[in-house]
Every structure is written in structure tokens, then in C-alpha cells.
């Protein structure tokens, strides 16, 4: 028996099989990169145009001329990814399923004295377009390097192009020196009197009047009349503030209202449907999920009515493992709003998943139910 021949023959066979398997694998990778997505599969890996899981956590959307832009926190692997090591990532899409990587829209700074120094906490970026100045305006929640969640500032960056690059402008606590406004008819004894704060959250509010209100989890909403509002967790998260932005969207006017004061609410996402304002938020349990809550109001200034949890079915008591970040109106479809949530993975931040689910209107009420997969045909035209 010629052992050499058998040995080499076997080697050739193994090499051949390996080559075939590599080729098949390479084919698979190429195909999956190129494959067009036609549905949403909440909670699964969501590949971008390069086949890489989308990296835009705590995100928000901007729609312009047939294109959606998705801005979110770029996370890195491990626990370090809970801090901003890279910046804000931007993606674009025409169909909401397939996303093109547009790169880093706002980069953190290597200068450790910068407000947005690498390693700071930069969360929930939201971009709006200002028609008057023709600028793209990005607001975000900023925590200064090495200070945990103490600074609680609103950060601002601006660009001439949707995809950036954005230039950092300033960060601060909004509405220093101002008192809130109230829905008409609010009795005087329900208004904050800083000579005599009635409870914990009013105490935090009054403490922060001179230096400005804390601004953590946030969103920006542009109304039909072009007025923009910044909504954020203030008073150690005990209250949501809804605050008017100036005409170029680059600062606060001092006009604001306090919503659901005295209850800790995070992750606000606001939208308008048939003239009613809707607000979805969460409780305050760090990265762990908790029940969502929703509110509605006839005016942005309230009165805001609390309605409890909009989620229904299995997993509803923990928002299906996620936390709200944005509600996206689908352009060109009636009554079509997508609830966008993050399923955080703080031990390996980059692996965080996206839960997008359709909002169902039941009269003026809303409901969110879990779906393993769905597409835009879930909405009527
Ligand atoms: C919950 C917030 O919604 C997130 O944006 C983030 O700030 C985490 N808390 C940090 O624990």
C-alpha cells in the first residue's frame, strides 16, 4: 500500500472540502451583505449596507426629501461602550428597512478639557432641520468626563449637511432663572413656590433655578407651525420638562412646563396625531427595562393626562425588554407611527438591539404589542 499517496490524497480531499466550505461561506457573507431587507425583526441583529449591526443607540430620526436619517450613540464593545468613545453615528435609508452607514456625524474630542471629551457620556442625540437658518441642529444629553451623571446638561452641535460633520457649540442646563408656565386653570396652590417647595421634586426644581434645570434623557419635537420643543428629564429625573426652543433651535426661550412632576420618568418620545400630543416614557431603572407609560394632551403646554402602560401582551410589563427612544411618523402613510426602543446590553454595549413596533390607535388611545416580524403594510395607506 502506498501510504504517501493515500496521505496526500486525503490532504487534497480535505483541502478541497475546506475550499468549497470557505467559498460557500464567503458567498453567504456576500449574499447577506447584499440581501435587501423587507421587514423589521425587533431584537435581532440589524445589518447595515456593509453587513455590520447598526450602531445608533438611543437614536432619533430626521426625514428629508425621501430619505430618513437615523442618528444614535455609537457604542463600543464591553462596559466601556456605555461612555462616548467615538461619537454620534448616522445612517440613511429610503425604505426604513435597509440602512446605509453614513459614518460618524459628531465625533468626541481627544481634548480632555472639551465638554465632549472622549469618555464623556453623550446620549440620545436628536437632529432637527431649521428652515430659517438652513442648519441641521443636534441636541443631546451630555455628562462631562469623569463626573458620572452629575452634570445633566443639554449639548448642542450644528452642521450644514444632514450627515455632518457636526460642530459642537455649547452645553448647559436650560432655563436658568425661569419659572414654569401652567395649563390655564391651574390653581395657585399647585404652582411651585420656591419660598415653600411642597415636595422633593419642587425642592430640586428650586435648587436648580439659578443654574438651570437638569437635562438628562431627552427628545426634540418640531410642531406643524415650525416651533421646536426640547423635552427632558429634570429634577433628578422626578419631572419631565417641555421647553420651547428659539426660532433657530439653538437655545431655550425660558418658556417651559413641568409634566408628571414628582414621578421619575425617563426616555421621553413625543408625537402628534389628529391634533393630540402624545408622549411615551419609561420609569427609571438604569439600563434595566421597566413598564412604559404614556400621556396625552390637547396642547404642547398641557394639561398632560397620564394613561399608564401602552404595551400589551407578554413582556408588556418590561416594554418587551426595551426602553423608548423615539416615535417615528412614517411619511406618506396615515396613522402610521413606529415606536422605537432600545434593548440595552450594558455589559457589551455595542450589542444593544433595536425594538421597532407599530403603534396601534384605539380611538384616542394607543397600544403597542410585540411582533417577531412585521413590515409597513401593517399600516393602512
Ligand atoms: C436610562 C437612560 O434612559 C439611558 O439613556 C441611560 O442614561 C441609562 N439610564 C444609564 O443608566
Automatic annotation (TrEMBL):
GO terms for molecular function: hydrolase activity, hydrolyzing O-glycosyl compounds. InterPro entries: Glyco_hydro_43, Glyco_hydro_beta-prop_sf. GO terms for biological process: carbohydrate metabolic process. Residues 1-26 form the signal peptide. Pfam families: Glyco_hydro_43 (PF04616). Keywords: Glycosidase, Hydrolase, Signal. It comes from the Bacteria. The keyword Hydrolase applies. The keyword Coiled coil does not apply. Belongs to the glycosyl hydrolase 43 family. This is Family 43 glycosylhydrolase. It comes from Mucilaginibacter robiniae.
Amino acid at each position: 500500500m502506498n501510504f504517501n499517496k493515500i496521505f496526500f490524497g486525503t490532504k487534497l480531499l480535505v483541502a478541497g472540502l475546506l475550499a468549497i466550505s470557505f467559498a460557500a461561506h464567503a458567498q453567504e457573507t456576500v449574499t447577506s451583505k447584499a440581501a435587501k431587507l423587507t421587514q423589521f425583526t425587533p431584537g435581532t441583529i440589524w445589518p447595515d449596507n456593509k453587513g455590520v449591526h447598526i450602531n445608533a443607540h438611543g437614536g432619533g430620526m430626521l426625514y428629508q426629501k425621501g430619505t430618513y436619517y437615523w442618528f444614535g450613540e455609537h457604542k463600543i464593545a464591553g462596559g466601556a461602550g456605555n461612555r462616548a468613545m467615538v461619537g454620534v453615528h448616522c445612517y440613511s435609508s429610503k425604505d426604513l428597512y435597509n440602512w446605509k452607514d453614513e459614518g460618524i456625524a459628531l465625533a468626541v474630542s481627544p481634548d480632555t478639557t472639551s465638554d465632549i471629551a472622549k469618555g464623556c457620556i453623550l446620549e440620545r442625540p436628536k437632529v432637527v432641520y431649521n428652515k430659517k437658518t438652513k442648519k441641521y441642529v443636534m441636541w443631546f444629553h451630555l455628562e462631562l468626563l469623569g463626573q458620572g451623571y452629575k452634570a445633566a446638561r443639554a449639548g448642542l452641535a450644528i452642521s450644514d449637511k444632514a450627515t455632518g460633520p457636526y460642530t459642537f457649540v455649547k452645553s448647559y442646563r436650560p432655563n436658568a432663572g425661569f419659572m414654569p408656565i401652567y395649563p390655564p386653570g391651574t390653581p395657585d396652590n399647585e404652582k411651585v413656590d420656591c419660598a415653600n417647595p411642597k415636595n422633593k421634586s419642587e425642592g430640586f426644581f428650586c435648587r436648580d433655578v439659578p443654574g438651570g434645570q437638569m437635562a438628562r434623557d431627552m427628545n426634540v419635537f418640531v410642531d406643524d407651525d415650525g416651533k421646536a420643543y426640547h423635552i427632558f428629564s429634570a429634577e433628578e429625573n422626578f419631572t419631565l420638562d417641555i421647553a420651547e426652543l428659539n426660532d433657530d433651535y439653538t437655545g431655550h426661550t425660558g418658556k417651559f412646563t413641568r409634566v408628571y412632576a414628582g414621578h421619575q420618568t425617563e426616555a421621553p418620545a413625543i408625537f402628534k396625531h389628529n391634533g393630540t400630543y402624545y408622549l411615551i416614557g419609561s420609569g427609571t431603572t438604569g439600563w434595566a427595562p421597566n413598564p412604559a407609560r404614556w400621556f396625552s394632551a390637547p396642547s404642547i403646554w398641557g394639561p398632560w393626562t397620564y394613561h399608564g402602560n401602552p404595551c400589551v401582551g407578554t413582556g408588556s410589563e418590561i416594554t418587551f425588554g426595551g426602553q423608548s427612544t423615539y416615535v417615528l411618523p412614517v411619511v406618506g402613510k396615515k396613522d402610521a407611527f413606529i415606536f422605537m426602543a432600545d434593548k440595552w446590553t450594558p455589559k457589551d454595549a455595542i450589542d444593544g438591539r433595536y425594538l421597532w413596533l407599530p403603534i396601534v390607535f384605539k380611538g384616542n388611545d394607543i397600544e403597542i404589542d410585540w411582533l417577531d416580524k412585521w413590515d409597513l403594510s401593517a399600516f393602512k395607506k
